[in-house]
Amino acid sequence: MPYVFEVPTTLEALHDMIGNFASTGSDVSLIVQRIHAANSVRLDKNNKEKMQNFYDVLLRRFVEVGDAIYTSGDGGPELGRYDQLNALTQTLYAMAQDSPQCASAVFGRRLGIMQKALAKRLRDAEFIAADDEDAPSAWPSTGALLLLQALSHIFPVTNLRHVVVTPALIFLSQTVAQCPIRSLDDVVMGLFCSGLIIEYTKDAKRLAPEALAFISGALRLFSNKAEAATEAAAVPSFELAVRN
After folding, report:
1. Residues with Cβ < 8 Å from 42, sequence gap 6 or more?
2. Are 210 and 237 in contact (CB under 8 A)?
3. Would you put residue 75 in left (φ > 0), alpha (ψ -120 to 50) or beta?
4. Is 143:89 a contact under the CB 8 Å cutoff?
5. DSSP string of 6-44?
6. Smallest Cα–Cα separation from 126: which of 180, 183, 63?
7. pLDDT for 15-63, tens place per residue?
């Protein structure tokens, strides 16, 4: 494996590198680390543009690996997808320290893409029958949610306003407030999102009403009279859960 790599400009180019030089998940993480080490903005300010592009490639890679965990699990010692995510988080943090403005701008654009995708899924959900068991979930993917979890370890969550954290918090709050509950997986996703919201707000000692409302609604599902209990829930999406 070479010690010096060129910066891949697309996710597909990174996949080609991985296919040529990596045989395990550890090798993949090592390639990413070497790309950053050899092309860091701290070494040459002229690397700023290509490393900004590489940051977006890594965000997409993170979501891809996270989605693979949902469908196929960790992959064992050979793939080690959880370890890959940990290594990616460390590299994303290091790159954010190298160039905070670039990292914030790229992460902000990725959040904008996620927001538009959520809006489309919510619009589509309005035309899906409540009893349609094969309907796609309106909730974000596992990889997207894991990326939002990593975000809280890359940027400060205690600031009153932050160019990345604040939009991410709004996105999570909209997700738990508006996404319909159609399955147990949706409940799990909602609880995970609620946990992230609380994680974002606890150190700043802020209240998270959307998260508390969702958790309250989830608890009401276990009531002996769940249908009557959820009528008083602050999150209307639980109505579908009772019907199903």
Report:
1. 98
2. no
3. left
4. no
5. PPPSSHHHHHHHHHHH-SSHHHHHHHHHHHHHHH-TTT-
6. 180
7. 999 999 999 999 999 999 999 999 988 888 888 999 999 999 999 999 9
Amino acid at 29: S
124, 181 Cβ separation under 8 angstroms? no
Note whether 61 and 69 are within 8 A (CB): no
Q: How far apart are CA 102 and CA 59, in angstroms?
A: 13
What is the C-alpha separation between 22 and 36, in angstroms, rounded?
16
Torsion of Cα atoms, 105 then 110 then 113 then 114, to 10°? -130
- HSE-CB at 26 with a 13 A cutoff on CA atoms is 3
- Give the burial class of 72: count Cβ atoms within 10 A of its Cβ; 0-12 exposed, 13-18 middle, 19 or more buried: exposed
What single-letter DSSP state applies at residue 126?
T
Q: How far apart are CA 154 and CA 104, in angstroms?
A: 10
pLDDT band at 1 (very low <50, low <70, confident <90, very high): confident
DSSP 3-state assignment of 46?
helix
Which of left, alpha, beta for 44 (phi over 0: left; psi -120 to 50: alpha)?
Answer: beta
Indicate the pTM of the whole model: 0.88
Helix axis angle for 100-125 and 142-154, nearest 10°, is: 150
Both tokens assigned to 174? 């909209």
Lookup: tokens for 79: 């793939």
